[in-house]
Write a structure and sequence with these properties.
Elements: E1 8-9, H1 20-33, E2 43-44, E3 121-133, E4 136-139, E5 144-150, E6 155-158, E7 165-167, E8 173-178, E9 193-198, E10 203-204, E11 219-220, E12 230-232, H2 233-237, E13 243-245, E14 248-250, E15 260-261, E16 264-265, E17 279-285, H3 294-308, E18 314-320, E19 335-339, H4 345-354, H5 364-372, E20 380-385, H6 405-420, E21 424-430, H7 439-444, E22 461-464, H8 469-480, E23 483-493, E24 501-502, E25 508-513, E26 517-518, E27 524-525, E28 531-537, E29 544-552, H9 555-559, E30 562-571, E31 574-576, E32 582-588, E33 592-601, E34 607-614, E35 627-628, E36 639-648, E37 681-689
Parallel strand pairs: 2-4, 3-12, 3-15, 17-18, 17-20, 20-21, 21-22, 23-33
Antiparallel strand pairs: 1-14, 3-4, 3-8, 5-6, 5-7, 5-9, 9-11, 10-16, 13-14, 18-19, 23-24, 23-28, 25-27, 25-29, 26-28, 29-32, 30-31, 30-33, 34-35, 34-36, 36-37
Length: 693
């Protein structure tokens, strides 16, 4: 087992500092006492006492004693009941003391843990479900655990004997009765790995969990396994062996655990009706690491408020850092649920978000628990965090700069309590600090991660960059309130230009839907950016509709040579097949549809020339000259002037124009220019003698 190499400094503002003189005394006490203190003990259900008649406890790495150690009755252990937790600002943790010896176990074990029989030892694991207080979780029945062989670093094969499998009972106890543990027995002092194999209906297992070291959620039993003894997960092999001296956390390991096996509740679904709006809890991580992206966090949170506007929804604001809320002032306090659409509430909520500041560590446990412990009930809770949990509990227990199993376990128990109230929990990990394995986000929300092209309504957890957060929260809000967004962008490729550009205003579109209600009807015109948008509202979060998008060009656009040449569409960022002359797309509540319509201008050239003869020897006399009629005659050799009316009858500008008359010399015709815009005309002239033929 790898322990953190250096003592970890806990935040001094938690009030755990001590005078130097007392610190020396505490260090001395630690040397004398050793590491027996169980700093992370976590009570489960009503079983406050440890579940063994007489349990042998030795250092897990110690060499087994050669002789049988007979059980010796021990004084009864007592455990205090945790004080009720505060709904808002948690009390500060009392200054830590040097580790004290563990209390002896009770001689009388609860009926749920069997007493070891002849030549037997019992390994018992406590299994927890929902958090019920500041340091307690309910018992969870139906979790199946199994013993595996293996060495210190590698998991071996599962044992196939019946005694190597257990299922937790109503008291949350899962007990293995291991035979042949007498002196020289085959299983004496054998070490096993405890691994979960299945969860009861409505729950799911979590392995791995992301920590600062080991990730696979499994635990190896201690060095001793001897007949007549019971070995408990909360004391002998799964518990937190770290301890505090002043503001220092010593002997910490990534595998430190509360001693209570975690399992996650399945995530509840949202209400199947969309008529009354949602009650939303927005849980924001305001730890110090968020500071450089606080602007993005506020923008995204405010955008979510805007996306919920008009739906009859309400929103409550919760914050956390190393404690929850982050502070009691406007820069970090919680705010009770407020209806978004009433009066100026929308602005009030956004102003509150804009006042938030950052500072401190990351305590998922307490951030989520404050919502579970709230008297109000929420349909949807959205946890936005930029990092893994490094603290737990109301007084910020934990290393502060590393993640262990215990920080995750406590967050899972709190999330279970929130889900037990019927609240759907969405976890959004944002930024570099929580990229990679999403196991911890999954553990506090549900089993389905969001993938590009997926529907936000079907996802339990998300991972995004900071610049994507606003889109993620908007999609979540739209989906949760039974809406889909449809955005159209017009691109145009004008004749003679190098490529398409975003079109401007004045392009018309129609949209129809087989189900749901569109926010706009009739022909809609693009704005100055060439865009038009629709909202599609459903009566159910599972609503689906076929949407048809059609472009309607004006007479002038058609005359100018514009034609629809390509349509491309994506749904939630993934391309979907569409074809001209319209786009037909299947749309579900929560979808984000983006379509681009490309129009290309194709211009046809055209030119006419009208020739006339005039009775003047040069073009200078044309003003007073008489036009000679078609078919008329003049004496051979008469000098006359010809006029050529050149007209551009096409759709495009003509360049390089030159008129050549095959009855005259090649350069006889003179024109005022060589360029004609569409619809324009010019008169060219030539003079010469009439020759009889």
């Amino acid at each position: 087992m790898t322990r953190f190499n250096m003592p970890v400094r806990r935040p001094p503002h938690r009030g755990a500092g001590r005078p130097a003189g007392r610190l020396v005394a505490l260090l001395l006490a630690t040397v004398l006492i050793g590491t027996a203190g169980q700093a992370g003990a976590f009570a489960v259900g009503d079983d406050a006492a440890l579940n063994a008649p007489a349990v042998e406890k030795t250092d897990p790495g110690a060499t087994p004693a050669p002789e049988e150690a007979a059980p010796v009755p021990a004084p009864e252990e007592t455990q205090s009941t945790p004080a009720p937790e505060q709904a808002e600002e948690a009390p500060e943790e009392a200054p830590a003391k040097a580790p004290a010896p563990k209390a002896a176990r009770s001689q009388v074990a609860p009926l749920s843990v069997p007493a070891p029989g002849a030549n037997e030892a019992v390994i018992t694991v406590k299994v927890g479900g929902d958090r019920t207080g500041s340091a307690a979780a309910s018992n969870l029945a139906g979790v199946k655990l199994r013993l595996h062989d293996g060495d210190a670093n590698n998991l071996g094969a599962a044992r196939t004997e019946a005694w190597a499998t257990c299922t937790s009972d109503a008291q949350g106890d899962c007990s293995f009765r291991v035979p042949d543990t007498q002196n020289r027995g085959a299983n004496r002092d054998r070490r096993f790995w405890v691994v979960a194999s299945s969860a009861p209906e409505g729950w799911y297992l979590n392995s791995p969990l992301v920590t600062s070291g080991v990730n696979e959620y499994r635990f190896r039993t201690g060095a001793n396994l001897r007949s007549g003894n019971t070995y408990s997960s909360r004391v002998d092999f799964m518990n937190d062996a770290s301890y505090s001296i002043g503001s220092w956390l010593l002997n910490a390991s990534a595998s430190d655990s509360s001693g209570t096996w975690q399992t996650s509740r399945m995530n509840p679904q949202l209400p199947l009706t969309c008529e009354t709006g949602l009650k939303v809890a927005l849980i924001l991580d305001l730890s110090g690491s968020v500071s450089s992206d606080l602007g993005n966090l506020k923008k995204a949170a405010n955008g979510m408020v805007d996306s919920l506007a008009g739906t009859g929804s309400s929103i409550a604001l919760f914050t956390f850092a190393d404690i929850a809320p982050r502070s009691s002032g406007a820069d970090g306090r919680n705010y009770a649920s407020m209806a978004i659409d009433t009066g100026t509430n929308r602005k009030t909520i956004k102003d509150r978000i804009d006042a938030y500041a950052t500072g401190g560590g990351t305590n998922w446990d307490q951030g989520i628990w404050q919502v579970a412990n709230d008297a109000a009930k929420y349909d949807l809770a959205i946890v936005v965090t930029d990092g893994q949990p490094t603290f737990y509990g109301p007084s910020a227990s934990g290393p502060g700069n590393a993640t262990r199993f215990i920080e995750n376990e406590r967050a899972i128990f709190s999330a279970n309590a929130l889900k037990a109230k019927g609240t759907r929990v969405l976890a959004v990990g944002v930024g570099e600090g929580i990229k990679g394995n999403p196991a911890n986000l999954r553990a506090v929300s549900g089993v389905s991660g969001y993938a590009s092209g997926g529907n936000a309504n079907e996802a339990d957890y998300f991972q995004a960059d900071w610049n994507q957060l606003a889109g993620v929260l908007s999609s979540v809000a739209k989906g949760a309130t039974c809406q889909a967004d449809i955005d159209i962008t017009k691109h145009t490729h004008a004749y003679g230009t190098s490529g398409p550009v975003q079109g401007g205003a004045g392009w018309g579109f129609n949209a129809t839907a087989t189900q749901g209600k569109l926010s706009r009807t009739g022909t809609q015109q693009t704005n100055s950016s060439g865009q038009v948008s629709y909202d599609l509202g459903f009566s159910s979060p599972t609503g689906t509709s076929e949407v048809t998008l059609t472009e309607t060009m004006s007479t002038a656009q058609t005359r100018d040579g514009w034609d629809l040449t390509k349509i491309t569409c994506t749904v939630n960022g993934t391309n979907v097949p569409v074809s001209s002359p319209n786009a037909k797309i299947s749309v579900t509540a929560g979808d984000q549809v983006d379509c681009t319509f490309l129009n290309t201008q194709t211009l046809k050239p055209g030119l006419t020339i009208e020739k006339s003869a005039w009775d003047t020897p040069t073009s200078a006399g044309l003003e007073n000259a008489r036009e000679l009629p078609d078919g008329g005659s003049v004496p051979s050799g008469t000098q006359i002037t010809w006029k050529y009316l050149v007209t551009n009858t096409g759709q495009t500008k003509l360049t390089g124009i030159a008129v050549v008359d095959d009855q005259l010399a090649a350069n006889a015709v003179s024109c005022p220019g060589t360029v004609l815009d569409a619809g324009k005309s010019m008169t060219c002239t030539a003079s010469g003698p009439v020759t009889a033929r």
